[in-house]
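the four lines:
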Amino acid sequence: MDTKAADMVGNVLDPNCPSRVVLARVGDKWAALIIAVLEDGPRRFSELKGMVGVVTPKVLTQTLRTLERDGLLRRTIHAQVPPRVDYELTDLGATLLEPLATLRHWAEHNVAAMLRARDRYDDAQDGRIAGD
Amino acid sequence: MDTKAADMVGNVLDPNCPSRVVLARVGDKWAALIIAVLEDGPRRFSELKGMVGVVTPKVLTQTLRTLERDGLLRRTIHAQVPPRVDYELTDLGATLLEPLATLRHWAEHNVAAMLRARDRYDDAQDGRIAGD
DNA sequence: CGGTATCCGGTTGGATACTG
DNA sequence: CAGTATCCAACCGGATACCG
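prediction for all of em together
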């Protein structure tokens, strides 16, 4: 199997590297959230805006367009008044749910340790400034 | 099991949500790469700089400090001249390799489809501007 | 060798206001 | 309803130069 770090490095160094492309997409602030929301089925623009809460329409549109461009979700305009636009995961987008779930499970199990480490680190830094 | 979207959403909406914290860490430009490089064992600062190639010392330091702060890697200073500093994954950091590999495998299998979708989308946009 | 200091341009996310 | 337009501040990553 070619899962040695050296292989992955040669890989990740390339700006077109698969991991880089995917992390860039999934890494931005709202993308993963939207994919998660769409797991249960299509949502309208206003539904998404409501569920996400604080996101502005501009940013929501941006995120949705990028995900659509990458074939992860499909945008369907229903010709009616008032206008209705549905967003739903494509088959491709749906396959992303699993790796995202894996990461989420890691996060749920280990974020506490991460945050504790963070506090420890910050305390050590404070000591270095205040007490030294 | 509580893997319904609604649960995840309530989760992801929280800025302190595990997924958000982890994606923020893993999403930045060099973090995943560095974790991957360290899979095979400790590396010195200059080794990392060499392997990553284009990254500037400032950015490399930043990334390493953040990962250290979150307890994902350990920084060891060897008191000798010339100075030698080793970076290696902590146990916590090592457990991140698996979810990252899952995402990487998805990326390798599906990035082609993503990029094709991207081209299709861009072509459609071009047509809309040039030919309309 | 392993950083830090300073400066800087581009991108990201958001506030606000307006439109088909 | 589902966006778009404009403006803006903060942050990120990088270039360059210098230091213990």
